[in-house]
Write a structure and sequence with these properties.
With 185 residues, the protein is an all-alpha fold. The protein has helices spanning 2-19, 22-44, 49-68, 72-94, 100-105, 113-140, 143-152, 155-169. It is globular.
Length: 185
């Protein structure tokens, strides 16, 4: 269900582009992202920072695309988002000595600190890869190719998440809190 909520703005964007043009698709993306954010809030009763940042970037870059009638803004939005995420995770880890990934997920996943650091480095690398890939496609290919990349490029996060799951699966339970009552007869 969550995958569908995450995917539907991109799917509607691509469909609107195929049926009309990039400007109609941008308006559809803006509306779909608002609906998506509302659904996430209705389900979780809160929004994560990523959802808020994504919504703001879609609305700002979408509005610039529509107001200036310049498709470059919407095409560069993913690059800005991914690069920003990499910068924030890197600055937090190496400058402020805080692991935002562990702060956000540490209550759900009990992993050794060294694994959290490696995991954050992997996420930074992933975000930089996605930022560079989107920038390359946006700069050197047609809008049609970029839109197709947005649809089929959805495989990147799916493969990445599966890879992350495989990586952390061997560590799950290593630092899980012990139940003090379990040892009593």
């Amino acid at each position: 269900m969550r995958f569908l909520i995450d995917f539907f703005p991109i799917a509607l964007f691509v469909a609107a582009y195929k049926l009309h043009d990039i400007y109609t698709a941008t308006g559809v993306l803006m509306a779909a992202t608002l609906v998506q954010t509302g659904l996430i809030y209705a389900i979780d009763k809160r929004l994560q920072t990523l959802h808020k940042v994504t919504l703001v970037l879609v609305l700002v870059f979408g509005a610039l695309t529509l107001a200036l009638h310049d498709e470059r803004f919407i095409k560069w939005k993913p690059t800005v988002l991914y690069a920003s995420m990499a910068i924030v995770l890197g600055a937090a880890l190496w400058v402020w000595k805080k692991n935002f990934l562990k702060i956000m997920l540490g209550s759900q996943l009990h992993l050794p600190d060294a694994v959290w650091v490696r995991l954050t480095g992997i996420w930074i690398g992933y975000f930089l890869f996605m930022a560079a890939t989107n920038a390359y496609v946006a700069a050197y290919y047609s809008t049609e190719t970029w839109v197709n990349f947005k649809l089929w490029g959805y495989a990147f996060p799916v493969v990445f998440i599966v890879g992350q799951g495989l990586y952390i699966s061997r560590y799950l339970g290593d630092e899980a809190p012990k139940d003090p009552e379990a040892k009593k007869p």
